[in-house]
Amino acid sequence: MNIANSVLLTDLYQLTMLQTYHAERMQETAVFELFARRLPPERGFLLAAGLEPALNWLENLHFTAGELDWLAGCGRFSPEFLASLAGFRFTGAVHALPEGTAFFADEPILRITAPLPQAQLVESRLINLIHFQTLVATKAARCVLAAPGKLLVDFGMRRAHGAEAALLAARATYVAGFAGTATVLAGMHFGIPLFGTMAHSLVQAHDREEDAFLHFAAAQPGNVTLLLDTYDTEAAARKLVELAPGFQARGIAVRGVRLDSGDIGEHARRVRRILDDGDLRQVTVFGSGDLDEHRIGELLASGAPFDGFGIGTRLDVSTDAPTLDMVYKLQEYAGKPRRKRSEGKATWPGRKQVYRRIVDGAFADDCLGLEDHPRPGEPLLIPVMENGRRLQPPTPLAAIRDRVRAQLAALPPALRANRTTPPYPVHIAPELRELTDRLDREPH
Fold first, then answer.
1. Which of 258, 136, 153 is nearest to 195 (CA)?
2. Is the C or the N end of the chain the one with fewer CB within 10 Å?
3. What is the C-alpha to C-alpha distance for residues 410 and 210, in angstroms, rounded to an integer?
4. DSSP for residue 48
């Protein structure tokens, strides 16, 4: 079984609700929207990611015979209900923000329109897929903004929370603008460029550091990046200068050096001087070690001469903002708008659209309104699936990267600077407020 594609990768209450809908014959059309209630304190924007994997999952959604047998053995579900699941498929419609679009609090990034049981069942896995990739893509985009023109590589697999998380994090960082990843399976699965250097253990396994450099370079002669800080960082840089003529004679190209320990900013300045004095100006300096957009910003502001960074732990788990308040809520059923009124968790009802005004190439403001009441600006939610099938082939990652690049360039300057600012303006359309007030006056 491919666990990631199993329909049982869900919450139990989805199935218990489906049995209720089955018993009561509640099969009319429902509209659910997925959105973030609020942004974390350290986030001025979010970057929508994960749509393509979500659509792929929806297209292939079904119960296997083994899953139905297991559910029958649980004793929780009626035979009639389980029989109805044998032919269960997603046949609905999906509207979504194009992957790589910047968005803000309360703005739906995905809308499901389908018979109620179908729209209900997909909730948990959709949030699971889109929440995580949006979280990581947003963190990665902030790193891209902090290090313009620098080579950024995802180093986070070993700290990711599981295999799928490692793979999807590599995808999310790449669409956000990273050059590639160290996660090999992401290269095979998504076609993402792979980057790698060497570990301290290779140096420690040799009696002499220079022998480690020689042997590693001989094994990877076309693209060598050496790790300098196993023992003495500056001494290792001087050894590289001494070895360089021999490397050149053998056709070995040393592309870069990596610094991973200590005050890497100061080490970078010293190593850069040693390399330049040794006529190795073409050798790049690559930093790693517990980095994120804040630390990278500090390093570059101090003048540390880094050409790129490997970013891992703080990226793949989004250390400073590890979760988003992302939810999936019923907004319409059987042709009637619905509104949750729970304290602190109330929703805006009805099928909504996000209208974005762009002035002089920059985001000016957004308006959250009803789909059937167009407002000034560009409507962001577009149809991507009808009758359970995509309307277009999967979007290439290169196209998503281009969209992200354009979105980041259009952000207001304060949001591009990764600092706390007043929230980006998202207005609520008058007709949406009127609908909300009307529903609040109705008895429940």
1. 153
2. C
3. 48
4. -
Dist. CA 232–CA 374, nearest whole Å: 64
Closest residue by Cα to residue 92 from 332, 378, 387, 354:
387
Closest CA to 110 of 33, 48, 55: 33
Which amino acid type is present at position 363?
A: F
* Chain segment 144-170, per-residue pLDDT in tens: 999 999 999 999 999 999 999 999 999
Q: CA-CA distance, 246 to 89, in Å (whole number)?
A: 64
Please check whether residue 287 is in contact with residue 261, taking contact to mean a CB–CB distance below 8 angstroms.
Answer: no
What is the pLDDT averaged over residues 342-370?
96
Most distant CA pair in the chain, distance: 85
pLDDT computed for residue 430 by the predictor: 97
pLDDT, mean of residues 121-133: 98
Sign of CA dihedral 79, 26, 59, 329: negative
What distance in Å separates the CA atoms of residue 284 and residue 23, rounded to the nearest whole number? 66
Return the percentage of the chain with pLDDT > 90, whole number: 94
Closest listed residue to residue 432, CA positions, set 329, 312, 350: 350
Which residue stretches of 60-183 are H helix? 65-74, 79-85, 116-121, 123-146, 163-175
Per-residue confidence at 373, pLDDT binned at 50, 70, 90?
very high
Mean pLDDT, residues 101-106: 97
User: What tokens does 18 get?
Assistant: 């489906």
Q: Which residue's entry shows tokens 């960074």?
A: 309
Rounded Cα gap, residues 112 and 110, in angstroms = 7
Tokens coding 96: 């979504």
The band of 393, judged by pLDDT with boundaries at 50, 70 and 90, is very high
Hey, what domains does the chain have and what are their CATH numbers? 3-136+349-430 (3.20.140.10), 147-316 (3.20.20.70)
Determine how many CB atoms are found less than 10 A away from the CB of residue 80: 10
Burial of residue 186, with CB atoms counted within 10 A of its CB: 0-12 exposed, 13-18 middle, 19 or more buried: buried
pLDDT of 4 reads 83
pTM to 2 decimals? Answer: 0.95
Per-residue DSSP letter, 90: -
